[in-house]
Amino acid sequence: MMFLASAGDPLFVHGINFAVALAVIIKVVLAFVFLLVSVLMMIWFERKIISDMQNRVGPDRAGPWGILQSLADGTKLFFKEDLLPDRADKRIFRLAPYLSAVPAFLSFAIVPIGGTITVGHYTTELQVADPPIGILFLLAMSAVAVYGVMLAGWSSGSKYPLLGSVRASAQMVSYEAALGLAVAAVVLYTGDLSTRAIVNGQEGLLRHVLPSWNVFRLGFVPFFVFLIASTAELNRPPFDLVEAEQELVGGFHTEYSSIRFALFFLAEFMNTITMSAIVVTLFLGGPDGPGFHFLRWLWPILWFLGKTLVLLFVQVWLRGTLPRLRYDQLMDLGWKVLIPGSLVWLLILGGMLISFKWGLIVLIASVLFGAALMRARALGAARVEEVGS
Question: What are the φ and ψ backbone dihedral angles of 118, each rounded to 5 degrees?
Fold first, then answer.
C-alpha cells in the first residue's frame, strides 16, 4: 500500500512566508479549476450514461462525442435574461445561489486526493487544507448548503418554490442524523477528526487479505447508510422531491434564470462530486492503493480518481434506474430505517471496541428490542383495523 503523509501539512513546518502563502493560493486555485472542469465533465458523463441506458445517442454535436455540450449550455445561460420576480425578497433571492455553491467547494477543500509532492525546497500534501476538525467542518458545510435551497424557495414569493424549500428542510433534518451517525462510526474507530488521519488509518491489510478500509472494518452498514443519506442530502434521484417537476414545476428554483439558475446547477453537480470524494475518503481508503517505484506521487491520485469515478457512476446508475419515492416513503426510510439502523450499528461497534463479549451482548439486546418493537407495531395495526371494521 502507498505510504501517505503523517498528520499536519509539512508545508507549514518552518512557518509562513511568501512562498508558502503562494503555494496555498495555487492549491486553492487548482482545486477550484479542477472542480469546475469536473462539473462540466460530470454533466456530459451523466447525460451519456443515461442515454446509453435508454438506448439514445445523447449529446453528440458540440465537440468530439458531444464533450463540449456542457460548455455550450453554460455559455448560453450566461447570456440569458436574469429575471427578478416582483414579489421576491431581492437580497435573499440573490444570495441563495451562492449559499448552495460555496459550501460544495469548501467541503472539497478538506479531501486528500494524494500523498505528498515536493517542489523545490517545499513539500506539501495534495490537499487544500487539513484542519484538525475536518469532519465537523464537513457536517457544518452540509448543514449550511440546505439554507441556499430553503431561502431560494422562501424568497421567490411563489407557492411552488416555497413548497420545495419546505421539503428541503424536512429532508435535511431526516437524513442529516443518519449521515452524522455513519460519520460517528468512522470517527469512533479512527479516533481522529482529521480527514488525513482517517485516510492514514486505513493503510495496510485486514487479516492479510482485504484492504483495511473502513467499509470492511465497520461492516458495510455505515458505508451504505452514508451513501443513501448523502444522496438524499444532494436532492438527487430518487430523493429529488425538492424539485419534483410533475408536482412543483421546478421546485425551489422555479423563478430563477440565467447565471443564478446556473449556480444551482453547478452546486448540484459539484456537491455530487464532493460527496463521492468524501465517501472515498471516509470508507474506501482515499488515495490509498498499490503503486510502483516510478512517479510515486501519481499513483495515489489515480487511485483516488478511479474510486471517485466508480461512485459517480453509481449515482448516475441510480438516477437512470430508480423511480422517485413518494414523500411518505422518503420520510419512512429516513426515520424508521436509516436512523435506527445506524444508531444500533454504532452501539454494536462501540461494544466491539470494548470487547467481543460486549459487542455480542449489544447485538442480542438490539435484536430482541427490534423484535419486540415489530410485534408491538403489528398488534397496534391489528387493533386499528379491528376498530375500523
Answer: -110, 125
Transcribe 299-314 into DSSP letters: HHHHHHHHHHHHHHHH
85 neighbors 162 (Cβ within 8 angstroms) = no
Q: For 100-121, what is each residue's pLDDT tens digit?
A: 889 988 999 999 998 888 877 8
Q: Which of 42, 198, 195 is nearest to 127 (CA)?
A: 195
Predicted structure pTM score: 0.89
In the chain, what are the domain boundaries? Answer: 80-346
Cα-based distances in Å from 87 to 159, 164, 331:
11, 17, 32
- DSSP states along 348-379: HHHHHHH-HHHHHHHHHHHHHHHHHHHHHHHH
Spell 36-74 as b/e; 16+ CB within 10 A means b.
eebbbebbbbbbbbbbeeeeeebbeeeeeebbbbbeebb
The whole-angstrom separation of Cα 267 and Cα 254 is 16
